[in-house]
UniProtKB/TrEMBL annotation:
One of its GO terms (molecular function) is methyltransferase activity. Keywords: Methyltransferase, Transferase. GO terms for biological process: methylation. PANTHER family: METHYLTRANSFERASE (PTHR43591), RHODANESE DOMAIN-CONTAINING PROTEIN (PTHR43591:SF110). This is Methyltransferase domain-containing protein. Pfam families: Methyltransf_25 (PF13649). Residues 46-143 form the Methyltransferase domain.
Length: 251
């Protein structure tokens, strides 16, 4: 039986390994939530796409306690950790790559903001286009997509892309030196070795919920897909190297 305390410890360990790739992760979270708050509604309806164990969702609800946050992911193990650690959140298991995923959310009004961090790059470009197009059908006019991720620009501005990578690398070196946190693979290996997570890990394996590469790593892929989906203003709201907060406004 997965307890609240055990889930909380695993999520803290998840956050630490994520920070190894994103030394400015908490700052990016803060800016993203600032943008949701700036919409001016105390009770926004927010979708967290590819929520993992709920790290962003929990921070968002802590800042905006009147918000409704629907946390969406396809990974049963990460969702299991989130449900045990954050009973105040609403987790929905659905695959963003599947047409009709929004029907699983039980929405009763248009969405004010869709947010995501370090998740949507796993989608292939065709899947990304389909997902953004479906998302646009449930976002209100003027609603936001806020996507924090490593988005590269070497296809359009290769010199800037190299500089952005260098900025990110230097920030990581300053933050961790020769002692980086455990990496993504080591975290998952540790999860697989924990008997308390065996059932969830087996369910994850059966569902084929693992990731197999960065499919849409380019800024241009996301901008093009968003424009096709009817988003109007699209740009970088915050940036540190190639770590960005991409913002798009639903037309």
């Amino acid at each position: 039986m997965l307890t609240h305390d055990a889930a909380t410890k695993w999520i803290a360990r998840w956050d630490q390994q994520q920070e190894g790739y994103l030394p400015d992760r908490e700052e990016r979270f803060t800016v993203l939530i600032d943008a949701v708050e700036a919409l001016g509604r105390p009770d926004p309806l927010v979708l967290d796409l590819g929520c993992g164990p709920g790290s962003l969702s929990a921070r968002l609800l802590a800042r905006l306690p009147e918000a409704t946050v629907i946390s969406v992911d396809a990974d049963p193990l990460l969702l299991g950790l989130g449900r045990a650690a954050y009973p105040e959140l609403t987790f929905v298991r659905t695959d963003l790559r599947t047409s009709g995923w929004t029907r699983e959310l039980g929405l009763e009004r248009p969405v004010d903001a869709a947010v995501s961090t370090t998740a949507l790059h796993w989608l292939s470009e065709p899947e990304l286009k389909s997902m953004y197009a479906e998302l646009a059908t449930v976002l209100r006019p003027g609603g936001l997509l806020l996507d924090g991720d490593h988005l590269e620009s070497d296809d359009t501005t290769p010199v800037l892309a190299r500089l952005q990578q260098a900025v990110h690398d230097r920030a990581t070196e300053r933050a961790f030196g020769a002692n980086p946190p455990e990496d993504w693979r080591a975290w998952w290996e540790a999860v697989a070795a924990d008997p308390d997570l065996a059932d969830l890990d087996e369910e994850r394996t059966t569902a084929g919920a693992g990731h197999h590469g960065s499919e849409s790593r380019l800024m241009s892929q996301h901008v093009g897909a968003l424009r096709e989906a009817g988003f109007t203003e699209i740009g970088t709201l915050w940036q540190r190297g190639h770590n960005r907060l991409l913002c798009a406004v639903r037309g």
